[in-house]
Amino acid sequence: MAPWHLRSSEDLDENATNNCKNAGLKHPGLYESGMCHLRTYGKRVVNTTNFVDIRNYDWICSAGTVICDGQLGEPALRKSYGEFRLMVSNHCAKKRLDTMQ
């Protein structure tokens, strides 16, 4: 299991980061944009990636181990993200068609 936190201000992010640092956690993942501050921390038992910065303000992270098509870590997260984007895209396209009928 890997902890992570998402905060809406620098002060809250700093406070949460200090608490995690004091607990001995190391943070390999960091994402900041405007009021969004995300930090992910390394897994304690299994050494797999749990944060991927995709592009254009998109990212994916996990607290547990993601297994997708037999893959772990970054490949599994990227595959999960791709499948999620496809599902959302298909859902939005169907909604547009439904409103046109």
Tell me about this structure:
With 101 residues, the chain is an alpha+beta fold. The protein has one domain. It has 2 helices and 5 strands, in the order βαββββα. The chain has helices at 10-22, 73-100; strands at 4-7, 29-33, 36-40, 51-55, 58-61. It is flat. The chain starts with a strand and ends with a helix. 14% of the residues are buried.
Short description:
The protein has 101 residues and is an alpha+beta fold. The chain has helices at residues 10-22, 73-100, and strands at residues 4-7, 29-33, 36-40, 51-55, 58-61.
Query: Into which percentage range does the β-strand content fall?
Result: 15-25%
Query: Globular, elongated, flat, extended or rod-shaped: what is the shape?
Result: flat
Largest sheet: 3 strands, antiparallel
Q: What distance separates the N and C termini? A: 46 Å
- What is the SS-derived class? alpha+beta
The value of Rg in angstroms is: 16 Å
Q: How many discrete domains?
A: 1
The low-confidence runs, each spanning 5 or more residues with pLDDT under 50, are none
Order of helices and strands: EHEEEEH
Residue share in helix: 40-55%
Strand elements, count = 5
pLDDT averaged over residues: 86
Order of strands, main sheet, comes to: 1-3-2
Compute the number of helices: 2
